[in-house]
UniProtKB/TrEMBL annotation, chain A:
Keywords: Endoplasmic reticulum, Golgi apparatus, Membrane, Protein transport, Transmembrane, Transmembrane helix, Transport. This is Protein YIF1. It is a multi-pass membrane protein. It comes from Terrapene triunguis (Three-toed box turtle). The lineage of its organism: Eukaryota, Metazoa, Chordata, Craniata, Vertebrata. Its main location: endoplasmic reticulum. It is found in: Endoplasmic reticulum membrane; Golgi apparatus membrane. GO terms for cellular component: COPII-coated ER to Golgi transport vesicle; endoplasmic reticulum membrane; endoplasmic reticulum-Golgi intermediate compartment; Golgi membrane.
UniProtKB/TrEMBL annotation, chain B:
It comes from the Eukaryota. The chain crosses the membrane at residues 61-80. InterPro entries: Yos1. The gene is IER3IP1. This is Immediate early response 3-interacting protein 1. One of its GO terms (cellular component) is Golgi membrane.
Length: 303, 81
């Protein structure tokens, strides 16, 4: 369905239609598979190359026929190269899959942040599905997302800068080093998780992006620990560290267990698949690593 | 303090280490040869069998790309220190 829409729109666009220019991924009719609302109705799309956005009716106003030819040629070249770029990117990274992680809204973000800091009251940890695809974060609070981790990462870097500045230890290189260190630790953790999940032969639908999301949630804990250290000194840092570590461990253990052990659903079969013990070890190990990494990445900021 | 570059270096050294393990001379003696571990068609291969499979597949897949990446790294380190 969606591919038919795509081919339709591409064909119309390449033929130099008089439509208002639209991006290749926005179908003209509302589509149930669409992740984001189409807010571009009524005005031309802002992104994309400038040449392809020019309305073809404009050409009659240009006096020079050579300019007309040049504009038409340039717009067709631009649209072709844009298609090539999209195809290349699609080969490496599925953009639709990535879009799923950023389909959030304010209510989800607030509820998820509250859940990250106090997960003990939450009862139902399943990720709900609809026709084989997991629900977007907008509709399901248990779905992982990449918006909170990336925003928390940037906030953590800024907070680190503030903390170092308050101790007269700031310089711009330190900021870059802090950012790359934090990012590299998360990448290492994701790789370790992937390796251990492979070794334990668990069948789950955890993609690397899912694991990146779950590992990125610790940035929220780091922000709180650093804030506690800044506001209340060393004691505040340790209290905040202990609180967020426990909350993170509980959150991650419950979420991973629900994702790796669908047989624990009440209406499921009931017997664990082969490798059940290994799955438990992986979950507990991943949860136990969180406070270590949080401590390692923040203690040098709060002296 | 890490950078992405040091992560790449560490990964390259790690993959080199796995590629250097010789099948006949070393892994068989330790008991990690790939013809020793594979049992029947049981459900659960076990961690050791998975590891051996992983080592074997890494060695098979990464041999040629490793030659290229190592050469490039050597040249770059030569030029830029």
């Amino acid at each position: 369905m969606l591919s038919a829409h795509l081919i339709n729109v591409d064909f119309i666009r390449i033929a130099g239609s008089k439509h208002r220019g639209r991006g290749p991924l926005v179908p003209p009719a509302p589509d149930p598979h669409q992740l984001f609302d189409d807010t571009s109705a009524g005005f031309q799309h802002a992104q994309g190359t400038p040449a392809s956005g020019i309305d073809m009716g404009f050409n009659t106003l240009l006096a020079d026929p050579m300019a007309n030819v040049a504009v038409a040629y340039g717009s067709s070249i631009a649209s072709q190269s844009k298609d090539i770029v999209h195809k290349e990117i699609h080969r490496f990274m599925s953009v639709n899959r990535l879009k799923y992680f950023f389909a959030v809204d304010t209510a989800y973000v607030t509820k998820k942040l509250a859940l990250l800091l106090f997960p003990y009251a939450h009862q139902n940890w399943e990720v709900r599905y609809s026709r084989d695809t997991p629900l977007t974060p907008r509709q399901d609070i248990n779905a992982p997302d990449l918006y909170i981790p990336s925003m928390a990462f940037i906030t953590y870097i800024l907070l680190a800068g503030i903390a170092l500045g308050l101790q007269q230890r700031f310089s711009p290189e330190v900021l870059g080093m802090c950012a790359s260190t934090a990012f590299v630790w998360v990448v290492i953790e994701v790789l370790a998780l992937l390796l251990s999940l492979y070794l334990v032969t668990v069948q789950s639908d955890l993609t690397p992006f899912d694991l990146l999301a779950y590992s990125g949630y610790k940035y929220v804990g780091m922000i709180l620990a650093v804030l506690g250290g800044l506001l209340f000194g060393s004691d505040g840092y340790y209290v905040a560290l202990a609180w967020t570590s426990c909350a993170l461990m509980y959150f991650l253990a419950r979420s991973l267990r629900m994702k790796l052990h669908p047989s624990l659903v009440p209406d499921g079969m009931g017997h664990p698949r082969g490798g059940g013990r290994g799955q438990t070890y992986v979950t507990l190990g991943a949860a136990a690593c969180q406070p270590l990494i949080v401590y390692w990445l923040t203690f040098h900021l709060v002296r | 303090a890490f950078t992405l570059y040091s992560l790449l270096q560490a990964a390259l050294l790690f993959v080199n280490a796995i590629a250097v393990l010789h099948e006949e001379r070393f892994l068989r003696n330790v008991g990690w040869g790939t013809d020793q571990g594979i049992g029947g068609f049981g459900e659960e291969p076990g961690i050791k069998a998975q590891l051996m499979n992983l080592i074997r597949s890494v060695r098979t897949v990464m041999r040629v790309p490793l030659i290229a990446v190592n050469s490039i790294t050597i040249v770059l380190l030569f030029l830029f220190g």
